[in-house]
């Protein structure tokens, strides 16, 4: 049974994981920015976020950094740990299991082919306690572009004044085939791009390609 103190700690440590991930937004494509905080007896023993370029993942940095202190600890992760890797390398779920973590709290479930619930399932089969959905709304901004690319094959496009937290600026003629241009960026791994206010933004909006 979750106590009021534990619930309060869970929120605090997940908020820290989200903070770590937000600081890396725009630097980790083609992967989403993920934060991981490992806590034992109420103390943070390790924390990490996805490295620039998308590797290494947050969990594969934090688990080894925690060392023996990871045993019996809780890991707060902003997105479901991957259950498999496209490269065949050790998955984030395995990093947490091998480190001896006993509980994993996840903000958002990952719909990608290498997670899609498999990470959570693998952790539970190994005997770890897993909870999902904590601060999911607050974490949503971290993955909106990534999920958009998974669903559409295109990066999400938003209007921005300075592009902070975006992968890149979308530069194209307003008269171009904008869907094709965005699909090319999606194939290249971009998840979240920006445009300034003006003709291009208007053209994207008219074609249903601009996210409010």
In short:
With about 210 residues, this protein is α/β, with parallel strands linked by helices. The protein contains 7 helices and 8 strands.
What's the end-to-end separation, in Å? 40 Å
Give the overall form.
elongated
Helix content: 25-40%
How many runs of DSSP E, i.e. beta strands? 8
**Tally of contiguous helical segments:** 7
How does the SSE layout of this entry go?
Layout: H1 4-22, E1 35-40, E2 43-49, H2 58-66, E3 74-79, H3 92-99, E4 103-108, H4 118-125, E5 129-132, H5 136-152, E6 156-159, E7 168-169, H6 178-187, E8 192-195, H7 199-206
Parallel strand pairs: 3-4, 4-5, 6-8, 7-8
Antiparallel strand pairs: 1-2, 1-3
Structure description:
This protein is 37% helix and 18% strand. With 212 residues, it is an alpha/beta fold. It has a five-stranded mixed sheet with strand order 2-1-3-4-5, with helices on both faces. A three-stranded parallel sheet has the order 6-8-7. Helix 1 crosses helix 5, helix 2 runs parallel beside helix 3 and helix 3 packs parallel to helix 4 (118-125). The longest helix is centred in the N-terminal third of the chain and has 19 residues, at 4-22. It is elongated. The chain starts with a helix and ends in a 6-residue tail after the last helix.
Main features:
alpha/beta, three-stranded parallel sheet, 212 residues, five-stranded mixed sheet, elongated
């Amino acid at each position: 049974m979750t106590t009021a103190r534990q619930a309060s700690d869970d929120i605090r440590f997940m908020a820290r994981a989200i903070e770590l991930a937000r600081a890396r937004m725009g630097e980790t494509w083609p992967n989403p920015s993920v934060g991981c905080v490992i806590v034992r007896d109420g103390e943070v023993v390790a924390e990490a976020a996805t490295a620039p370029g998308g590797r290494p993942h947050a969990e594969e940095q934090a688990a080894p950094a925690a060392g023996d202190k990871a045993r019996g600890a809780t890991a707060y992760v902003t997105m479901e740990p991957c259950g498999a890797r496209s490269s065949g390398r050790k998955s984030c779920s395995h990093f947490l299991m091998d480190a001896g973590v006993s509980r994993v709290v996840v903000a958002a479930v990952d719909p990608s082919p290498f997670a899609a619930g498999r990470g959570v399932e693998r952790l539970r089969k190994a005997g770890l306690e897993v909870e999902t959905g904590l601060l999911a709304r607050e974490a949503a901004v971290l993955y909106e572009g990534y999920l958009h690319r998974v669903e559409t094959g295109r990066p999400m496009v938003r209007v921005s004044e300075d592009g902070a937290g975006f992968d890149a600026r979308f530069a194209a003629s307003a008269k171009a085939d904008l869907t094709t241009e965005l699909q090319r960026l999606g194939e290249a791994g971009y998840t979240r791009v920006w445009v300034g206010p003006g003709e291009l933004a208007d053209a994207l909006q008219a074609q249903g390609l601009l996210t409010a």
